[in-house]
Amino acid sequence: MTNTSDLIVVGSGILGLATAFLAHEQGRSVRIIDSADRPVGSSIQNFGHACFTGQADVIQDTARHARAGWLRAAQAAGFWAAESGTHIPAMTDVELQVLREFAEHRGDEVTLLTGPDVGAALGNPDLPAVGGAHLPLDMRVDPREAAPSLAAWLDREGVTFSWNTRVTAVGDGVVATTRGDFTAAEVVVCPGFELMGLFPQLAEAYDVRVCTLVMALLERPSHLRQDLAMLTGTSLARYDGFAAMPSAPALRDELARREPALVDCVANLMATGIPEGLLVGDSHAYSLSPEPFIDEDVADLLIDRSTALLGVERPVVRQRWLGRYADSPNTNLVLERPDARTTVAVVTSGIGMTLSFGVGHLALSGEQIPGF
Ligand SMILES: Cc1cc2nc3c(=O)[nH]c(=O)nc-3n(C[C@H](O)[C@H](O)[C@H](O)COP(=O)(O)OP(=O)(O)OC[C@H]3O[C@@H](n4cnc5c(N)ncnc54)[C@H](O)[C@@H]3O)c2cc1C
Questions:
Q1: How far is CA 21 from each of CA 119, 154, 182, 272, 337, rounded to the nearest angstrom?
Q2: How far is 327 from 50, CA to CA, in rounded Å?
Q3: In this protein, which residues make up the domain named FAD dependent oxidoreductase (predicted)?
């Protein structure tokens, strides 16, 4: 009977761990099953940027659940989480116009800044910004710390982990694995970009594919804060909240003229600080079976543009990697119930870390977010 629990979570990425955390808070017995021996998927490859404010209006309730969950988990497990917000320099009048419209739309969630103020906040007083914004509700975590710390804390709290155990099928409360069957009253499946391996029909129905992103870890010069989070004009064109503003089409036209190389590699130029250094990226390419190669021109472009904004004269690269996350051209979230006891949850855009505790709440409560 030890193979039976109230809830089985498949996947020890941040979405699976967040779901397990919420179920543990409810007093349920939980088992987490993962084919790896620790969290090594998308959840440790990202910026650690909890970008609640820039997401679509329709997901803001879920974002509030997510933010509260992040704060409770950080408090319980003792990992670093900074409520330091995001800074966005506006380098052109069109970028500033999008920020003004967004501030008008969201009120207190957005503070407009002068050019000198946003430069100072980013540690680069010489930045020739025409203005900017601070999004005070956004948060920072260290992706290399948060998921492993949360897993270790859940383990200490009595959540059972089955590592090195590949799940081969899930249905009606039975989870078949390479180490035999496990049963539970309810199963939540969070396999990230490996959805195709477990639920191929679902993956095909949503055209789920793998997005690969060129990333780098630089040495962080002392003038840049560990809790730094910088979004840029490309982010304003990309995240649904900003992209819904009336001036967003004009911004996309301007970016195509001003920064064609960034547009070509589908960049979301951004940077965050972590204890290990400065994370910069990223580009986006889509494939069912991506090749592992990093394009050096793209990597250099992203480093060049981000460090120019941050006043880093001689960037020192410590690591490069090709990150991966699940993507769909049709939806930001696959949240399906193939049978009464199984929920499949995959965030299919680059905001799964941000929304993890909110999506975990949806998976456990049975709520849906139509139109997201
Ligand atoms: C470069 C990059 C930057 C990003 N930046 C951000 C950001 O700043 N903010 C943000 O919100 N999001 C960001 N994202 C997206 C975010 O990282 C992901 O959306 C999120 O981590 C997905 O979490 P997950 O738990 O669903 O997936 P994962 O972390 O990939 O975890 C899935 C787990 O499931 C396990 N698994 C899969 N199949 C099986 C199976 N059959 N049996 C057993 N185990 C299985 C895997 O081993 C893995 O451990 C970024 C992603 C990348 C790659």
A1: 38, 7, 20, 26, 21
A2: 18
A3: 6-363
In this prediction, residue 1 carries a pLDDT of 45
Spatial separation of the C-alpha atoms in residues 343 and 195, rounded to whole Å = 12
Contact 234, 92 (CB under 8 A): no
Residues 287-334: pLDDT tens digits? 999 999 999 999 999 999 999 999 999 999 999 999 999 999 999 999
Question: Quick check: CB of 350 below 6 Å from ligand 1?
Answer: yes
**Ligand 1 mutation pick, 15, 35, 46, max ligand atoms within 8 A of CB:** 46
The pLDDT tens digits of the residues spanning 318-327 come to 999 999 999 9
CA distance 112 to 90: 10
Q: Is the ipTM of this complex over 0.90?
A: yes
pLDDT, tens digit, for every residue of 236-292? 999 999 999 999 999 999 999 999 999 999 999 999 999 999 999 999 999 999 999
State how far the Cα of 192 lies from the Cα of 201, in Å rounded to an integer.
15
Residue 249: the pLDDT is 98
Is residue 33 in contact with ligand 1, taking CB distance under 6 Å? yes
What is the longest distance spanned by two Cα atoms in the chain?
Answer: 65
From ligand 1's centre to the CA of 14, what distance in Å?
7
For residue 125, the CA-to-ligand 1 centroid distance in Å is: 36
Please state which CATH number belongs to domain 4-78+142-206+330-365: 3.50.50.60
Annotated domain spans of the chain: 4-78+142-206+330-365, 86-136+209-327
Burial label for 220, CB within 10 Å (0-12, 13-18, 19+), is buried
Please name every residue paired with 144 in a beta bridge, in sequence order, or none if there are none: none
Going by C-alpha positions, the residue among 318, 350, 315, 366 that lies closest to residue 14 is 350
Per-residue pLDDT band at 372 (split at 50, 70, 90): confident
Q: Is 36 in the pocket of ligand 1 (CB under 6 A)?
A: yes
- If one residue of 40, 42, 240 were mutated to test the ligand 1 pocket, choosing by the most ligand atoms within 8 A of its CB, it would be 42
